[in-house]
Amino acid sequence: MVRSDYSSYDVIVVGAGHAGCEAALAAARMGCRTLLTTLSIEHIALMPCNPSIGGPAKGHLVREVDALGGEMANNTDKAYVQLRVLNTSKGPAVRALRAVCDKELYRRRMRRTLSSTPNLVIRETAVTELLTDTKGVTGVRTKTGITYWAPAVVLTTGVYLKSEVFMGELKFSSGPQGQPAAQGLTESLLRLGFKTGRFRTTSPPRISARTVDYSQMKEQRGSRIPLAFSAWNNPRPRRQLSCWLTYTNEGTHKIIRNNIHRSPFSADVLEGAEPRYCPSIEGKVRHFPQRPAHQVFLEPEGWNTDEVYLTGLFTSLPEDVQVQVVHSIPGLEQAEILRPGYGIEYDYLPAGQLKVSLESKIVAGLFCAGQVNGTSGYEEAAAQGIIAGINAARYVKGCRPLILSRGEAYIGVLIDDLVTKGPKEPYRMLTSRAEHRLLLRSDNADLRLAPYGYKMGLLPEEKYKTMQAKRERVQAEIERLNNERVNPTTEVNEVLKQLETALLSHPAGLADLLRRPELSYDDICKLAPPKEPLSSAAADTVEAEVKYGAYIKKEKRLVEQMKELEEKVLPSQLDYDSIKALSLEAREKLGSIKPRTLGQASRIPGVSPADIAVLMVYLRGGGAQRE
Amino acid sequence: MEKDTIAAIATAVGVGGIGIVRISGPKAFAIGDAIFSPRRSGKISEQESYSACYGMVIEKAGGKVIDEAIALVMRAPASYTREDVLELQCHGGPMAVTAVLKEVLAAGARLARPGEFTERAFLNGRLDLAQAEAVCDVIRATTEANLKIAQEQLQGRLSKKIRALREELLSLEARMEVAIDFPDDDLPELSPEQLQDRLNRLISELESLIAQGEQGRVWREGLATVIIGKPNVGKSSLLNALVGRQRALVTDIPGTTRDVIEEVINLSGLPLRLLDTAGIRKTKDVVEQLGVEAAKEQLALAQLVLLVLDAERGWEDEDELIFSLCQGKKTLILLNKIDVGKVLTVQDVKRFCPGEEVIPLSVKKGYGFKELEDKIIRFALGSQQAIEHVSVSNLRHLEALDRARKALQETSAALSAGFGYDIISTEVRSARLELGTITGETIDQELVDRIFQDFCIGK
User: Fold this and answer.
1) Given an 8 Å threshold on Cβ–Cβ distance, is A90 in contact with B122?
2) Domains of chain B as residue ranges with CATH
3) Which of A11, A310, A405, B73 is deepest in the core (most CB within 10 A)?
4) With an 8 Å Cβ cutoff, are A564 and B456 in contact?
5) What are the pLDDT digits (tens) for A434-445?
6) By mean pLDDT, which of A137-151, A324-338, B208-222, B294-308 is the weakest?
7) Cα→Cα distances A46→A39, A49, A127, A410, Å
8) By three-state DSSP, how is residue B11 classified?
9) Peptide bond into B77 cis (omega under 30)
């Protein structure tokens, strides 16, 4: 008999990828005794695919995780080899950070954070079975025969469930990067009544930097302006590594076309099931035959390795074909492949089986997050991980779950889309999926979400106070811009002339000047600086709020209008079949998805506005009576 | 959040009878004050609950009379919806009622969704539990009926056009969104000039669609009608009889192109503008006195010609001349004095005027007016596709088109003001959503699908 402190926990997190790390940290930081299991301690927070974190929408997610009290942003700040701002000219709503990370450093630092967190126990083991009783989950059993008990379990198994690797004619059971696949757990889930599906993704070959001829490529440097992902880290100048850009050519495409029959996936399968935002090079050559060249980015995988990731060259063609393909590309003629690319197929749990809290509808206390829910990407995984961790902890404590709405966070959009629409391909966050993205900016993630993080007991007080101070500075500065005017003096007009904008003949408000498209907040400070300069983060928010004020107001009104629907909670035991006024399709869809609110119901494909009207009537009358 | 004010036609659509425009919500009475001019009593907002007053519905912008109506005031909570409710009982036909509704919407109400009054009644606790099922059925039924109507109307060119516009908007959006979400991919750039160009084209296409929809204005502004004929066939008596049969709503309206005095009569909701030059009433011989040119001018203004013949006299040269002047105009031929004359018969007229409609008439005896009025209405309904454009669900369409146009104008303004793709694309999206409400297309996945379909992504 093992000691109970070895086998009993409040929360068990199964899998230590990006979702698992955030989930375990959140639960432990919220005071739950937490067990984090992993197949391999060395591979905690592994980045098996590209070395980058962030980008449009994904970078927003990272900021939001940070605002709630998560680790990904901070860890990226410590581990990046390059950091850039994207979309500078496309508006503040879509401006985003993207980092290229030292993969090894990223893992090491995350592991250090985990192991120094009180209440958190890490254990290398393979969970093969979920244990339940009539009330819900009770724990897990491992391959080695040990049982761990907990009232809440978070499944963050990534792409490991019964995963198989494909490379040309080869196919074998394996997780990513030679890790073992997770066996047994799928069967346990099926026995509990879960449905599973299968998704696929591909990764590119990695090459040795020492064998690359960079003279034929275009350099892409990091930002010269110091940046930081986390709202609580001060941007500091740092040495960075460059990425490099080269292109495929007709020769490359010919090699691919000649060998396409050796792809592990037949042509029609190839078209149907691979994620469209991350297509294999063979897919791109097939779908866009008119394009003479495709981009290939070389991204370094760290400070202390010569390994380089070939973004854009995702492939599951046989290794010998990959060698030819790589060598056909300018600058890569002599490149040594360190690891060939491969396709991987894995079990996932269609997310329609989850509530918006990420708790399963089938087994109480069982939460799921990350790629096992059918998403792709480290950032999407981390975003779900922190929510699952928070809600597992709150479940244990008997508190209501934290649910972020579509109007307040990308995380809200992500989870709502997942559980409501049941994506048919691995789900990637895109800014175009967020209907209120003017409100969900990267610059205000902390202002939006830190209050939640603090209230959950996850975000430490001093960070919360930092955010409050920023909020006050932002508000005060906006007020100053609204009230202060500059006079049409010679000096002022001289500055305006230098800024290539219209000169003044009458006094003008600072806010009005800032609304001129050609002027930035920094320019305004040249005319009339505040008493104390703002942090660049606060300045970004001030600029966005003033320049885009009218649009932001409009967007807020739309969110308000939706609120009525979003706040109408549907009884979970509502019998949709008995509401004959609903369309057949709506009855079926509503019954299976069991939306939490009317707002969520309205987004289910196949549920019409008339069905929503019917439900509204029921909420007030019949439905409420039946409860 | 305060509830908005909704309005809709509360009676079944059909020619003739009373049509009720119902307005419910906090602004119901304010809207009433803005567009309704009581004949004797005070303002709508000062009326007691359950009082009725007689007056005119007035076009807010132009001050023109749209219809006479009885306004029924019901104060919250003693109303169907338990909100402030104003009902305008219009005596005009469907088109007059639609015109009134349009005015109400222009004054700040929102077009109600099908079943929304009932829904509000229910939500405000007006209906009891037992009625819940029935309410739901009503919502379902009206929505489906509405959808069916809309779809039928959309079978034609209009729907094709709107779908094409949506496609165009979608591809614009996809161009921007793909650049936003995949900034490192080398994708075709869309310059601000190109974008502005495409926006302008879209705006003008929407404008012409809206203009087509507005063709239904015959029903609001009246059908210009000319009575013509040789001397002594009974033109004046016909005019007087028409005016006498119907209450003349307005007497002095200046003509749009020249100083012509009109008599406007209300024919089952259709304002019939009888163009009344001095000549028609006073001279004995219009063709002689005004000459052929003058007759032509008069006819040029007309949308409908009533050509009067005399059954007591034969088909004379003057008839031949006048008939030839009417070529190319919708003409109804009236064979007057059939109670006394047998010289010219309907068959004769049909021989002289092949393919024309002939209505036997006796102004003196009051015979044939029913047929005349029916034919006029049928002409106004049939020859104009107008009827489609101004029916209720099409008013909905027009509103949506107009909102889409506004959104695109805002897009264009934002573009010239130097805003980024984040704003521009959002504005284009709202235009697309408006058009989607017409065609009933879902927006769910289509943008994302489009991005992946059109662009090679995969950094």
Assistant:
1) no
2) 6-112 (3.30.1360.120), 157-214+390-454 (1.20.120.430), 219-383 (3.40.50.300)
3) A11
4) no
5) 989 999 999 999
6) B208-222
7) 12, 9, 19, 24
8) coil
9) yes
Question: DSSP string spanning A249-297?
Answer: -HHHHHHHHHHGGGSSS-HHHHHHHS-TTS--HHHHHHH-TT-S--EEE
Q: How far is A288 from chain B (nearest CA, A)?
A: 7
pLDDT band at residue A271 under the 50/70/90 scheme:
very low
**Rounded to whole angstroms, what are the CA distances from A156 to A52, A367, B84?**
20, 9, 55
Beta carbons of A286 and A85 less than 8 angstroms apart: no
Classify each residue of A492-505 as buried b or exposed e, where b means 16 or more C-beta atoms within 10 Å of its C-beta.
Answer: bbebbeebeeeebe
| Tens of pLDDT, residues A165-184 | 999 888 899 998 888 999 99
* H or E segment and range at residue A12: strand A11-14
A386 vs B142 pLDDT, higher one: A386
- pTM value is 0.76
pLDDT digits (tens, 9 = 90+) for A566-623: 888 888 888 898 887 788 888 888 988 899 998 899 888 888 777 887 787 777 654 4
Residue A614, pLDDT score? 77
pLDDT digits (tens, 9 = 90+) for A338-381: 999 999 999 999 999 999 999 999 999 999 999 999 999 999 99
Task: Answer whether B180 sits within 8 Å of A431, measured CB to CB.
Answer: yes
Return the residue of A nearest to B421 by Cα: A90
Mutate to test the interface with B, among A50, A84, A88, A90 (most CBs of B within 10 A): A90
Put simply, whether A452 touches B (Cβ < 8 Å) is no
Within 8 A of B442 by CB-CB distance, chain A residues are: 605
* DSSP class of B48: P
Nearest chain A CA: its distance from B90 CA (Å)? 29
Cβ within 8 Å of B, A 566-595: 579-581, 583
Which residue shows structure tokens 């503040």? A92
Residue A291 and residue A105: Cα distance in Å, rounded?
38
Q: Which residue has the tokens 């024919």?
A: B267
CB contact under 8 A, A613 and B144: no
What residues of chain A lie within 8 A of the CB of B136, using their CB? 579-581, 614, 617-618
Nearest Cα of chain A lies from the Cα of B34 at a distance, in angstroms, of: 26
Give the closest of A57, A288, A312 to B181, CB-based.
Answer: A57
Q: Are A315 and A205 in contact (CB under 8 A)?
A: yes
Is the minimum CB–CB distance between A58 and chain B shorter than 8 Å?
no
Angle, CA A523 vertex, CA A518 and CA A527 arms, to 5°: 125
How far is B1 from A563, CA to CA, in rounded Å?
10
Can you say how many angstroms the Cα of residue B249 is from the centroid of all Cα atoms in its chain?
A: 19
> What pLDDT is stored for residue A178 in this prediction?
86
Euclidean distance between CA atoms B407 and B427, whole angstroms: 6
Q: Indicate the residue type of A349.
A: L
Q: 């919360």: which residue's tokens?
A: A464
Type of residue numbered B238: L
Angle between helices B94-106 and B28-35 (to 10 degrees): 110
Q: What is the pLDDT of residue B240?
A: 76
Q: Which domains does chain A have, with CATH numbers?
A: 4-75+87-101+120-199+346-455 (3.50.50.60), 206-345 (2.40.30.260), 465-553 (1.10.10.1800), 568-626 (1.10.150.570)
